């Protein structure tokens, strides 16, 4: 049997929200976490000074973003050097990440049309790792398949040449560096927004109330009469 939902007016809802207390320190920490994780070094520096949040070595952000930018630009060898300068243990203890960086180096050689150099690199640097790991071998075989097609647009694995693959590898490196520096690899703010959407969906089953439909403004909708 259907039951009617409780209707909560905008005034009632705003009173309930205003009754919830938030510590400014928690809000500042949340903002700082987002700026640091996403690499907004100038904004993080200014916010850190103005808000008085816990001091963070902002130079580590600059170094991390230099690595990320190098991968995004296809300069993978430079990125690997920068990672090792930051902390050699990052790649030493993460064989999957190191393989993906080497795979990206191979992709860049193929992109540049350096077929012989690409084959030599695949044989010397990636094949031995593929012999030790079946997943790596499958990834290597997919990447080398790019060399079979004169027109890469006809290749079933052409997505490997998309800029999106560079971005994926860059994000993986970024997360590994953050973890090595005892930071969360993902910012907390998106998770909280997802939780808000989930909570609204759950509450929809029990009540009619003013939603926040536009997360960018945080404005409550006006209920229709």
UniProtKB/TrEMBL annotation:
<dbReference type="InterPro" id="IPR024964">
    <property type="entry name" value="CTLH/CRA"/>
</dbReference>
<dbReference type="InterPro" id="IPR006594">
    <property type="entry name" value="LisH"/>
</dbReference>
<dbReference type="InterPro" id="IPR006595">
    <property type="entry name" value="CTLH_C"/>
</dbReference>
<feature type="domain" description="CTLH">
    <location>
        <begin position="60"/>
        <end position="117"/>
    </location>
</feature>
<dbReference type="InterPro" id="IPR013144">
    <property type="entry name" value="CRA_dom"/>
</dbReference>
<protein>
    <recommendedName>
        <fullName>CTLH domain-containing protein</fullName>
    </recommendedName>
</protein>
<dbReference type="Pfam" id="PF10607">
    <property type="entry name" value="CTLH"/>
</dbReference>
<dbReference type="InterPro" id="IPR050618">
    <property type="entry name" value="Ubq-SigPath_Reg"/>
</dbReference>
<dbReference type="Pfam" id="PF08513">
    <property type="entry name" value="LisH"/>
</dbReference>
């Amino acid at each position: 049997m259907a039951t009617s939902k409780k209707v909560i007016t905008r005034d009632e809802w705003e009173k309930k929200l205003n009754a919830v207390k938030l510590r400014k320190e928690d809000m500042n920490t949340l903002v700082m976490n987002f700026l640091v994780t996403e690499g907004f070094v100038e904004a993080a520096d200014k916010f850190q000074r103005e808000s008085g949040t816990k001091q963070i070595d902002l130079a580590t952000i600059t170094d991390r973003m230099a690595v990320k930018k190098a991968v995004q630009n296809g300069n993978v060898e430079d990125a690997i050097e920068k990672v090792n300068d930051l902390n050699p243990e990052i790649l030493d203890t993460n064989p999957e990440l190191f393989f993906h960086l080497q795979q990206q180096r191979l992709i860049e050689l193929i992109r540049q049309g350096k077929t012989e150099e690409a084959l030599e690199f695949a044989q010397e640097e990636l094949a031995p790792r593929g012999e030790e790991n079946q997943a790596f071998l499958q990834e290597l075989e997919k990447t080398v398949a790019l060399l079979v097609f004169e027109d890469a647009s006809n290749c079933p694995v052409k997505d490997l040449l998309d800029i999106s693959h560079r971005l994926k590898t860059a994000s993986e490196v970024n997360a590994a560096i953050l973890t090595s520096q005892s930071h969360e690899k993902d910012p907390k703010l998106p998770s909280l927004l997802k939780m808000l959407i989930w909570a609204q969906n759950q509450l929809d089953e029990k009540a009619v109330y003013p939603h926040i439909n536009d997360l960018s403004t945080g404005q409550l909708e006006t209920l229709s009469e």
